[in-house]
Amino acid sequence: MIKPPEHIAIIMDGNGRWAKKQGKKRFAGHIRGAETVSEIVEEVARKKINFLTLFAFSVENLSRPKKEVNLLMKLLVSSLKKEFKRLNENKIRLCAVGDLNTLPNSVKNELMFVIEKTKKNKQMILTLALNYGAKEEIIEAVKTISKKVKNSIIPPEKVDESTIISHLYTRNLPPVDLLIRTSGEERISNFLLWHIAYAELYFTKTLWPDFKKEDLEEALSNYKKRERRFGKTSEQIK
Q1: Which alpha helices (H) appear in 90-212, and where do they start and end?
Q2: Cα 118 to Cα 95: distance, rounded to the nearest angstrom
């Protein structure tokens, strides 16, 4: 039988469409989506899954209307303040990956505060991908490695898979076992490209604000039916 996933990653899509269906402004969808985050994080921790990574804000999201971006940043700060106590109660450690230096100071300060105050928690590691793009992550890793090769810090022949991993934003995360995307879209959207090399992909038409514990359970049940071969044959796995 397939082992339970150690690392789940989620592309939380559909907040805007949810709001439109409700006859509300887009931001109402983001507010409800933040509530869903709280519910799903707690449920994943309850299931003793060690790692959960959420695509909270992509590099591409910066091209959205400035007003929406500013509101999203304010929502992130308020959510961090609101969820801080719950994270500690559930022994969840918060981490973040992406180009964090370009985040507004209010966001960065609150984020770093919660990261510091939860760093000893060991029940689960919750990682937020903020101002994140996987291609940008790999480009930055290549640049850094190239400089080290040029300066004779790393011999060219020693550059291998582990070298690249150690220079990624996501270097402390294990490979993704299960990638979930909500809202019916079936694409990766520049998310964790290195870590999902052998991930099982699960797409659901459910919009993120409507994603419940039952939807998570359905995704996990679907995962259990998969055969993870990692390039081998079925006979080799058996």
Answers
A1: 105-117, 134-150, 161-165
A2: 9
Cα 15 to its chain centre, rounded Å, is: 16
105 is known as an active-site residue: no
CA distance 74 to 76: 5
Residues in the chain: 238
Contact call for residues 208 and 225 (beta carbons, < 8 A)? no
- Would you state the structure tokens that stand for residue 188, as one six-digit string? 């990766």
CA distance 85 to 88: 5
**Gap between the Cα atoms of 30 and 37, Å rounded:** 10
Residue 68 is predicted with a pLDDT of: 80
CA distance 20 to 29: 8
Catalytic residue among 15, 50, 61, 190: 61
User: 3-state class of 100 per DSSP?
Assistant: helix
- Tell me how far apart the alpha carbons of residues 84 and 118 are, in angstroms, rounded to a whole number: 8
Active-site residue, selected from the candidate residues 13, 90, 121, 177: 13
Which neighbouring-strand residues pair with 181?
11, 203
User: Using one digit for the tens of pLDDT, what is the confidence trace for 151-193?
Assistant: 999 999 999 999 999 999 999 999 999 999 999 999 999 999 9
Span 94-152, pLDDT tens digits: 999 999 988 889 889 999 999 999 999 999 999 999 999 999 999 999 999 999 999 99
Q: Is 132 helix (H, G, I), strand (E, B) or coil?
A: strand
Tokens for 82? 């609101």
151 tagged catalytic: no
